[in-house]
């Protein structure tokens, strides 16, 4: 073996040793950095958990006996106390929500008035116009349109009518489709469903306690409906489809799916 080959072999060996040393140093640095990062993360998590525990201990929203006045101050809510009820979230946090019965009355009265109602007229307007029976009640201005669609629907075989009290009825039960059966279940249910074709309805703003409009279809032209619920009563506001983003049948199928969800 000549001297050139010996020098080359020695150079290769030295290079391998150097690379090994560099790799070893790099891995030690990497492991040390990962440990430092992990330690920092643990410290951050511990600090967060400590702050969270202190916040829970000192915050009104985590006290089981918090009053409405205390929670209003905590959440910067300004509405009248009578509008709210205290509810408990999954993490134990106390929150204020508008009572479902009040939001339901506001939505119903806004529908009947076809405009924003005032708190002063809610009780009288609701009592004078509310449907009193279970089943499917159609808002007066929409009865012709609803009936025309149901009786000219490719998904339905039965024929329908609306009685003098405004309730949907089956006038002729033919070879029922699955959708006919769903409608019949709603008609005979021990719940009350109010149907209104409207892309906006009224509600109480949680923070201010004022009656405001909810233009849900303006915010999402593809939203087929929105609803307001109180115990066994539900008002379903069906999209007017002003921007023609959906077909009438798509809206109908979406409502049928809603009835499925209600039953679960």
Stretches where pLDDT falls below 50 for ≥5 residues? none
State the strand order across the main sheet: 3-6-10-9
Largest sheet geometry: 4 strands, mixed
Percentage of residues assigned to helices: 40-55%
Shape: flat
Q: Could you report the average pLDDT, rounded to the nearest whole number?
A: 87
* Number of extended strands: 10
Q: What structural class is derived from the secondary structure elements?
A: alpha/beta
Output the number of helix runs.
8
User: Which range does the strand content fall in?
Assistant: 15-25%
Describe the oligomeric state of these chains in a short phrase: single chain
- N-to-C SSE series? HHEEHHEHEEHEEEHEEH
How far from one another are the termini?
87 Å
C-alpha Rg, in Å? Answer: 32 Å
Question: Could you name the key traits of this structure?
Answer:
alpha/beta; 8 helices; 264 residues; 10 strands; four-stranded mixed β-sheet; 19% strand; flat; two-stranded antiparallel sheet
Describe this structure in words.
- The protein is 48% helix and 19% strand.
- The chain has 264 residues and is α/β, with parallel strands linked by helices.
- Strands 3-6-10-9 form a four-stranded mixed beta sheet.
- A hairpin with a 2-residue loop joins strand 9 and strand 10.
- Helix 3 packs across helix 4 (119-129).
- It starts with a helix and ends with a helix.
- The relative contact order is 0.10.
- The mean pLDDT is 87.
């Amino acid at each position: 073996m000549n001297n050139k080959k010996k020098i080359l072999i020695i150079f290769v060996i030295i290079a391998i040793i150097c690379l090994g040393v560099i790799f070893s140093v790099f891995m030690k640095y990497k492991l040390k950095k990962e440990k430092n990062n992990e330690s920092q993360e643990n410290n951050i998590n511990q600090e967060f958990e400590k702050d969270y525990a202190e916040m829970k201990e000192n915050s009104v929203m985590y006290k089981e006996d918090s009053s409405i006045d205390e929670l209003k101050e905590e959440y910067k809510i300004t509405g009248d106390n009578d509008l709210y009820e205290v509810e408990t979230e999954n993490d134990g946090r106390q929150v204020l929500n508008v009572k479902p019965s009040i939001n339901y009355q506001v939505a119903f009265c806004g529908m009947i008035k076809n405009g924003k109602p005032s708190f002063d007229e809610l009780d009288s307007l609701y009592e004078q116009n509310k449907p009193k029976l279970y089943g499917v009640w159609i808002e007066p201005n929409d009865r012709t349109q609803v009936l025309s669609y149901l009786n000219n629907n490719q998904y339905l075989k039965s024929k329908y009518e609306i009685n003098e009290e405004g309730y949907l009825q089956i006038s002729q039960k033919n070879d029922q489709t699955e959708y006919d059966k769903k409608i019949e279940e709603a008609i005979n249910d021990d719940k009350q469903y109010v149907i209104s074709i409207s892309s906006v309805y009224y509600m109480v703003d949680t923070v201010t306690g004022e009656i405001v409009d909810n233009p849900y279809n303006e915010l999402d032209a593809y939203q087929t409906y929105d609803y307001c619920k109180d115990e066994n009563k539900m008002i379903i506001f069906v999209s007017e489809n002003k921007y023609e983003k959906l077909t009438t049948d798509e809206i109908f199928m979406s409502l049928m799916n809603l009835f499925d969800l209600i039953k679960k």
